[in-house]
Amino acid sequence: DMVELLSVLLEERTLWSLMANKYGNFVVQCVLEHGSPTQRSEIAKVVLGLTEQNPEDEQRLAEKAKKMPEGLEKDYCRVAALALSMYASNVMQKAMMHCSEHEQREIVKKVLNVDRLHFLRRSRFGSFVTSEAQKLAERFPGEA
Questions:
Q1: What separation in angstroms does the CA of 118 have from each of 69, 76, 91, 111, 123?
Q2: Residue 1 gets which letter from DSSP?
Q3: Where would a tag sit more exposed on the chain, N or C end, judged by fewer CB atoms within 10 A?
Q4: Residue scoring higher pLDDT (2 or 59)
Q5: What is the DSSP string of 8-22?
Q6: CA 97 to the chain's CA centroid
């Protein structure tokens, strides 16, 4: 049953694996484009770091954090880690395009807040995420 499959795909641990996977990221992007508002919201929660992290994800973030500048608050590490990922950065861009306006605003705020340290803009994949966030920020004046 499709609903059952989607509920498994939208579990945080599964989403993390799919977002950073060469082929799995397309599955998540497809749900963002064609899924229900509730399904898009589940993905946004993971992108924004609003869910509990399991130890494996914590370890992956710690590895990514070694490449991040000191002083980056822990709650921004998830956004930065996703933006720096070749595949997850595509998911982030889709999330900024297809999630609710409130979720778009929150993602944009976090991306631009992380980018205040300028390391995302200088990274190969983070620069695309930052560029998309800046375009969206123009639609939300005074908020990012």
A1: 10, 14, 21, 11, 9
A2: -
A3: N
A4: 2
A5: HHTSHHHHHHHHTST
A6: 12
CA nearest neighbour of 84 among 122, 56, 113, 125: 125
The amino acid at residue 1 is D
Q: What is the CA radius of gyration of the chain?
A: 14
18's tokens: 């799919």
Q: Please, how many CA atoms are within 13 Å of residue 89, restricted to the half-sphere of its CB?
A: 19
Indicate the average pLDDT of the chain: 82
Location of structure tokens 């993905």: 43
- Is pLDDT larger for residue 62 or for residue 19? 19
d(CA 59, CA 69): 17
- Give the chain's domains with CATH numbers: 2-139 (1.25.10.10)
Q: Are 104 and 40 in contact (CB under 8 A)?
A: no
